[in-house]
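We give the entry.
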Amino acid sequence: MSSYQASDRVVKDPTIEKGKWVLCVPAGWENYISLEFYEMQQSLVTYGWTKLVIGESDDAAILSAIRDAQVVLLWEPYELIERNADALNALPSSVRRMVFCDDVHHFTMHRRQQRLRAFLWADRILATYPDKLLQWYPEVASSKVEWTPHAAASYFRAAPSPSSDRALLSGSRTWPYPFRQFCGIKLPESVCQVVDHPGYPGYPGDRANTMRADPVALARLGREGYAALLRSHPAMLVCGSVFGYLVAKVFEGMAAGCLVIAERASLGARLTALGFVEGEDYVGTDLLHVIEDTVAVRDAYLCGDAFWKRTVENAMRKVAGQHTTTIRASQIHHLCTGGSIA
């Protein structure tokens, strides 16, 4: 059970509650490996958004609620828009159209077209990876894309002290993650603990995504289990994959009091853009230096070097003040209702 608590105004047929702000989300976020997006959605409900779950409410009822709204936020809604493109394109001009999107890479033209259809439909796009969206979908006007970075869910909290003295390497080590592959092979066990990814239990709203999770591993390493794993280690190795995504792991590790050793090439520029400073908030590295950098961080922790404590505290403070799911939901609310992120 998550430590996050919020009332859930999920509206089901046949009595759809209509409101001026309508949030439509695919079913399944509450059961996903991470509750980051679910917490954001629940926080939006506390601001007065009416939340409709695609698949629990039928499309006709959802479309009816959308037509009567002032603002509609569709969260990763690609299949809903694909099924109802004509009706959604015919919405009154008074309805403000918002889309939230996470991963934007694609391996098929159908997947690309699904996403492009949503991006062209939207008046404003809230994107975790705006630079990649604009690179891979040049048809989209940059003026309507807003960077909405990942955030740390509420259960990522620091422990009084880690129980391990090794850096953590977790997550998939398949082809999109050459940095993790290298670290998994080259870093000695005395310095780095490697934890296999439990897999993903599908992805809400994406029927083409057939990935499966190991239920035992997911129960141990998903959500609060992953937070406990992070706070038991003094440091973690993180990369942005070949796609260059500023992934949630960065914020989660920092929130859990785990010093982030970040691959500079895939993460450095976006961390800098958010105000994180290499050497003050995290340790930057590359394939040529990651072994010595990880050993140095491990030794600093073992020796009680003030650098480790100072870096961890700096990062925790920045995440707590700018990059929690509660804060991100507030920013999303203001962006959708006509404001901007301060």
Residues 167-322 form a domain with the Rossmann fold fold (CATH 3.40.50.2000). Residues 306-322 form the longest helix (17 residues).
